[in-house]
Specification:
It is built from 10 helices and no strands. It is mostly helical and 191 residues long.
Length: 191
């Protein structure tokens, strides 16, 4: 249990401490607009509390979950830890273990070198040793389900982006429409 506490403390996301309310308001506005960097920062504000926003672990969980659902391994590990500790969400070690597994499942160089990912692996070992075999199997299966859900979500967002008209398409349509109007005006003037 001692190694769990040490690993847990190392896994925590470093919190940037804002020095005025305007910065906090700006960060929240940017997070609400979809900026991933600010979403993580705002999650940290609420999880840790500060003089401008009170401690609200459920709100912090919400912001971290947005990033975890986008496939960010750092925040997937955070979500796992919050589930295991029951902070901001009902305690669920199986779900927490699943998120931890997901956080270390990426094979990019950046993920392998991230110290938090290595620490998450230590937590996985600790939590798996404390659970029965069936719970560990359920957690691993759940991690696979989560990975599929996240991948499907990425594909759906890409499909939406592809189906939306691009600036080039819109410019072409406007240009084409302008040409048609000009042609009609010339035709009318020629009559």
């Amino acid at each position: 249990l001692a190694s769990y506490k040490i690993a847990r403390d190392k896994l925590r996301v470093d919190s940037w401490s804002p020095d005025n309310e305007e910065i906090v308001s700006f960060a929240i506005e940017q997070a609400q607009g979809g900026d991933s960097g600010f979403q993580g920062q705002v999650g940290g504000y609420f999880l840790n509390g500060n003089e401008f926003v009170g401690k609200n672990v459920k709100e912090g969980f919400k912001w971290y979950k947005i990033l975890a659902d986008k496939g960010n391994p750092k925040y997937q590990g955070q979500i796992g830890l919050l589930y295991i500790e029951g902070k901001g969400v009902a305690r669920n070690e199986v779900e927490g273990l699943a998120w931890l597994h997901l956080s270390v499942s990426g094979n990019s160089t950046r993920v392998r070198k991230d110290n938090r990912i290595q620490v998450a692996q230590l937590l996985i070992d600790e939590v798996e040793n404390s659970l029965d075999k069936e719970s560990v199997i359920r957690a691993r299966a759940r991690a696979k389900e989560l990975a599929k859900e996240i991948e499907a979500n990425k594909i759906n967002k890409t499909a939406v982006r592809i189906s939306e008209p691009s600036i080039v398409d819109i410019s072409y349509r406007k240009s084409n429409e302008s040409n048609k109007i000009a042609t009609r005006q010339r035709d009318r003037a020629a009559l």
